[in-house]
Design a protein that fits this description.
heterodimer; A: alpha/beta; seven-stranded mixed β-sheet; two-stranded antiparallel sheet; 13 strands; globular; B: alpha/beta; Rossmann fold; 36% helix
Chain lengths: 248, 251
């Protein structure tokens, strides 16, 4: 079975439990990034979204896109899992917004070339699909001058991740060489070393504008992370948000 | 002179007497361009722009072996800048012996005194790239470059910096990355500067550079310990020991 189909099956299976566990944490009046939910108003990754065509790769229950629609953007949510998109539809009705939802893998998106101003992902398709095929797709979908922004686990956190108890510790557990593909029972996660992200982006005509390493507050809590991981993330970057611009 | 410039000059005066002076003749004679302690051949990574006919400045050249290789690779002009007179004396001796015609300038790479937009390429291999403050030497590199010119430098990998112990490297993170900037070493009374990847991206972008490439370097299977510098080949086979950044001054 392909990685995309394995991940689809995993997310269909886990979607209800995931939304049950994290729904309250993710329910916010304004957009936030990542496992520590750092406000976009603080990080300013996307800039003014009003009137922009925005594609969310791996939207899950579309928490992000719903808030962007309320801010005047024209979002499209894409996810590989039907069940996640059912949750998205329910939340869209609750929020009183409507926009297209696409059921597809981000490695093969059934949408036209150069149809978006922003393509973005928050622990979505740039973590759960192969970057080698997803980044070219994102570049194809962007208009000239468009922005690709995505938040993933940092390469450092991936190196320090202890799979035995699913914690990050200040100990190097994985070789950098093993970063590309984490094959777990539930599904397959992807990660690249810093240099390979930069080369992959550039090879697809995307100029790196920023690499933001968000830091949780001292008293931050998260349904995704334990307190000791917060202390880790206060000292080292546990997440990376890349910003890259398509240049004609 | 800032405190760290004086400290580093003194530290490199000692290191020159202990190692780099005696090593210089061999280093200058090397025919292949290779990067860092991993001795990664330039032909494997292709991080330098074409050098034929180019004006090159090496910031923190030490004994200027790297500049010598670039001159031999076709650079029209190579200026080596260093703040340590003892290392420049070694460089001048080899320059005379080889007749390569490098120009050697004693200055802090953060304020070289060289004219604006007078170079096509700025390089630094374990020079200004770790011994000067990036918030000072990156603006200076930008000033020295012509529009479209390139900056290529080698530094320790951030992961290695996080894992350093006093005289080796561990598999445990030894220091936080938050506020990583200046590191004062007590063993050899030197001061170096290291940043995480996000801070590097920002300091380059805010000084008018477009990021072209970043390559992380590992030790070859056959790598052995270094004769003088702390280098752990077993660690460096698993994680990046050093990294090369390449950026272009926007036109």
């Amino acid at each position: 079975m392909s990685d995309a189909l394995r991940n689809r099956a995993y997310w269909n299976r886990t979607s209800d439990e995931y939304q049950e566990r994290h729904g309250e944490f993710l329910r916010r009046p304004e957009p936030h990034w990542g496992g520590w939910q750092i406000p976009e108003s603080e990080l300013n990754i996307l800039g003014d979204v009003s009137g922009k065509d925005m594609l969310e790769l791996g939207c899950g229950a579309a928490w992000w896109s719903i808030l962007l629609a309320k801010r005047g953007a024209r979002p499209v949510g894409l996810d590989n899992s039907e069940r996640q998109l059912e949750h998205a539809r329910r939340l869209m009705v609750d929020a009183g917004v409507d926009f297209p939802l696409i059921h597809a893998s981000a490695e093969d998106v059934p949408l036209a070339d150069e149809s978006f101003d922003v393509v973005f992902s928050d622990h979505g398709a740039l973590s759960w699909s192969n970057p080698e095929t997803t980044v070219p797709e994102a570049a194809r979908l962007l208009r000239d001058g468009g922005l690709l922004a995505f938040c993933t686990t940092s390469p450092l956190a991936a190196i320090c991740w202890d799979e035995d108890d699913d914690l990050i510790r200040p100990v190097l557990r994985h070789d950098s060489f093993g970063l590309r593909r984490f094959d777990q029972e539930e599904g397959v996660n992807f990660q690249l070393p810093y240099g390979e992200w930069i080369r992959l982006l550039r090879a697809n005509g995307l100029v790196v504008e920023d690499l933001v390493e968000p830091r949780p507050a001292e008293d931050a809590t998260s349904t995704y992370c334990m307190a000791e991981e917060r202390d880790w993330a206060r000292r080292w970057p546990s997440e990376a948000i890349w910003k890259a611009r398509k240049t004609g | 002179m800032t405190d760290y410039v004086a400290r580093n000059r003194e530290s490199w005066t000692k290191s020159n007497a202990a190692y780099t002076d005696a090593r210089a003749e061999h280093a200058w004679a090397q025919t292949e361009i290779a990067w860092g302690m991993t001795e990664t051949p330039e032909s494997d990574v292709g991080m330098l722009p074409p050098l034929e006919g180019k004006d090159v400045v090496e910031l923190g050249c030490g004994t200027a072996y790297f500049g010598a290789w670039l001159k031999r690779a076709g650079a029209r002009r190579v200026v080596g800048v260093d703040v340590t007179p003892a290392q420049l004396a070694t460089a001048a001796r080899l320059n005379g012996q080889t007749g390569l015609g490098l120009e050697l300038v004693e200055a802090n790479a953060e304020e070289t005194g060289l004219p604006d937009e007078s170079f096509d390429v700025v390089v630094s291999e374990y020079g200004a790239s770790i011994w000067c403050d990036p918030y000072r030497w990156i603006p200076e590199a930008a000033r020295l470059l012509r529009p479209g010119g390139e900056l290529v430098f080698l530094r320790n990998s951030t992961l290695a910096v996080l894992c350093w112990t006093d005289d080796d490297i561990s598999e445990t993170l030894q220091r936080p990355q938050r506020r990583l900037h200046r590191l004062d070493w007590n063993d050899d009374d030197s001061t170096e500067f290291q940043l995480g990847h996000g801070d590097w991206v920002r300091v380059l972008r805010s000084n008018g550079f477009e990021l072209l490439d970043l390559v992380e370097l590992y030790a070859a299977e056959s790598a052995t310990k270094h004769a003088y510098y702390d280098f752990n080949p077993e660690w460096a086979k698993r994680w990046p020991w050093e990294e090369i950044w390449r950026a272009r001054k926007r036109v």
